[in-house]
Write a structure and sequence with these properties.
177 residues, alpha+beta, globular, Chalcone isomerase, disordered N terminus, two-stranded antiparallel sheet
Length: 177
Amino acid sequence: MSLLLSLFFATAEPAQIAGVNIPDTASVAGKSVVLNGLGLREKYFIDVYIGALYLPARTSNASSAINQDVHKRIVMHFIYKEVTAAQLNEVWREGFANVPNKAAQKPNLDKLCSWMSTVNSGDQIVLDYAPGTGTTVMVKGQKKGTIAGADFMKALWTVYLGPVPPTEKLKKGMLGR
């Protein structure tokens, strides 16, 4: 009986990568989401950030993770000493060059880029999507704003999980593969 109770009341351990604990669950606009997977973003053999994907239910299907109009989150937990706003914006623009309907998303991409600031090791960029509200962007714990529409969310999630992700390793990790 005590074994059964200990299993029942056991708390989930956070996932860990590159020495950083990533919570197993999160709340997006009051809805619970679970950690789908996480991966390490590297550039030129340098560890830049940990990417974590949260969804209502786990999936390894990129199309499902991108297209479902459900509460979801992407966290970029930076582990590199400093990434400037200019570097972040360059990467956002590179990523959006590979999404469908990129011309229609240019005003939203410009807004996203205007919210960026230099981040340091330990800082996070959090992208929360809530159906009917849009994608809320937080940088270093500060809410920058919300971009309405599922179309922008799908474009943004395509940057990470689409056919041309920042790295295949990051995409596979976020999809829990």
